[in-house]
Amino acid sequence: MKSNSSAISPASQDAGKPPSNELMREAEKAWLYALPLIEMAAARVRMLDTTHPGLHSGLNRFVHNRELVGPADREITTPNNDTLYSSAWIDLTDGPVTLTLPDPGARYVSIAVMDMYTNNSVILGARTPSGPAGVYRLVGPDEVELGENDLKVGTPHAWVLARILVAGDADLPDARAFQADLELSGPAAAPPKGHATRDDAWPEFFRSAADLLGADPPGSIVGLEAFERIRAAGRGGNFDPAGYSGDDLVSIEAGVARARTMVSGGTNNLRFVEGWSYPLPDLGQFGDSYRFRAAVAVQGLGALEVAEAMYMRAQSEEGSWAFNGDGLYCLSLAKPVPIDGFWSLTMYEATDDGQFFLTENRIGRYAIGDRTPGLVRNADGGVDIWIGREDPGGEKTANWLPAPRSGPFALFMRAYLPKPEMLDGTYRLPPIRPV
What is the pLDDT of residue 51? Predict the structure, then answer.
């Protein structure tokens, strides 16, 4: 069933006309519009898989990852190696879910509640006016009367993701103690059924998307109208290829192919400013930006909104995100990064379908940040980070971020709780340069 090729009915075999530009654009738009729902559903199935060690078997409960993420963890793209994760998939169709948060003290903690369109309905943390500690009720989008600690979620199903900062190995026990006190309780819910993935042929993809749209209706019709037009173009309205004309099939297949290329190769279209791409202001609160939302769903599912965290991607000397060189690179931070939280630079290897994961290296270091043990600072307080496939040796080893032994790699900078000068672009990161 999993195939990048589209299902073709006999009617399409004699289609000799070029694709209809209008229908092709509608198919591209429809596929991109539905993609975050498909990605969220796929992540939910993976993370509720009882055969996977460490994952949980039910909805409306937390599973706690008590180790920092490493190269073997490939459930979610672009993970960080700075925080412990606690995760839960919730179902509000039979009533609210109660979330209990202890006091984190000075520790950075954020608890994001994301709807099935990947918008952050709620982020509890340092920016919560009264602090994040408390007992909250997560309620569905149709709830009208809200209590003081009721938090409305954009869709009946959602993902709760807690990030708990770890300041080195010695801090792990305290971080785990906080994690253990996180609580989630709610009605028992039936496990969700499986759905098509983005690799499946477009009829299966669109049929699964229709089911997901029914379970979690959108708050906006921008993009949805294209989906409905593709549905209506075929007889029966069920995306059966036999119900479309040959010309229409050619157009739909061409539009879906364009959409696939956009999300798998979209990282090549990043806009760089002085060596870095900076997040758009609607990251994590996407509104009608369905194309941007689709790209983030593949390349950074679960992204926080920019007021909570900024994610920057470095530009290589070749002008793209992909670093290919075998030599040494340097990021020289002469000024402190303007944040109220923490920062880190993380190394990723890239997959063929546009996702990013941590990469094995012999010293087990996947990121360098302001909490890295043994980090050597310059006399003026600045930091030089050395990046490369081989150990640079000498004093540079303490600040070495290992790259993969071969193949392209990507570098992401995270800045949590950015200050105004970072949010408005007054402060810019220095470029990463080959040595």
Answer: 56
